[in-house]
Amino acid sequence: MEMTENQIKSIVEEVMAKMQLSGSTSGMHGVFSDMDTAIAKAKEAQKIVRVMSMDQREKIISKMREKIRENAETMA
Predict the structure, then answer these.
(1) Which helix (H) or strand (E) holds 67?
(2) What is the pTM (predicted TM-score) of this model?
(3) What are the backbone dihedrals phi and psi of residue 74, each rounded to the nearest 5 degrees, phi first?
(4) CB atoms closer than 10 angstroms to residue 12
(5) 12, 34, 16, 8: which is closest to 71 by C-alpha?
(6) Residue 46 CB: number of other CB atoms within 10 A?
(7) What is the pLDDT along the chain (76 residues), one digit of tens a residue?
(8) What is the pLDDT of residue 2?
């Protein structure tokens, strides 16, 4: 699965937007409302990541780091 830098950027921005929309909810420690959903989504994501090259993974992680730094104050 070949991903372009723009696709990676789009994915990271979408995740960041979802995190900002969900805001801070007392008692909630994550993106998903329950553990079963979180585990199922992690398994789905692993299937995608497993077929990516190390270069693709590095690009995704770099973009995530960049967006986290840009939004560090909001996320704090």
Answers:
(1) helix 54-70
(2) 0.52
(3) -65, -40
(4) 19
(5) 16
(6) 9
(7) 677 788 887 887 777 777 666 554 444 567 788 889 889 989 998 998 899 999 999 999 999 899 889 988 887 7
(8) 72
First-residue to last-residue Cα distance in the chain: 34
> What amino acid occupies position 5?
E
The string over 19-35, giving b where at least 16 C-beta atoms fall within 10 Å of a residue's C-beta and e elsewhere, is eeeeeeeeeeeeeeeee
- Quick one: tokens of 76? 């704090």
Residue pointed to by tokens 């398994």: 43
| DSSP 8-class letter at 27 | T
Name the DSSP class of 1: -
| Residue 16 Cα distances to 8, 23, 34, angstroms | 12, 11, 20
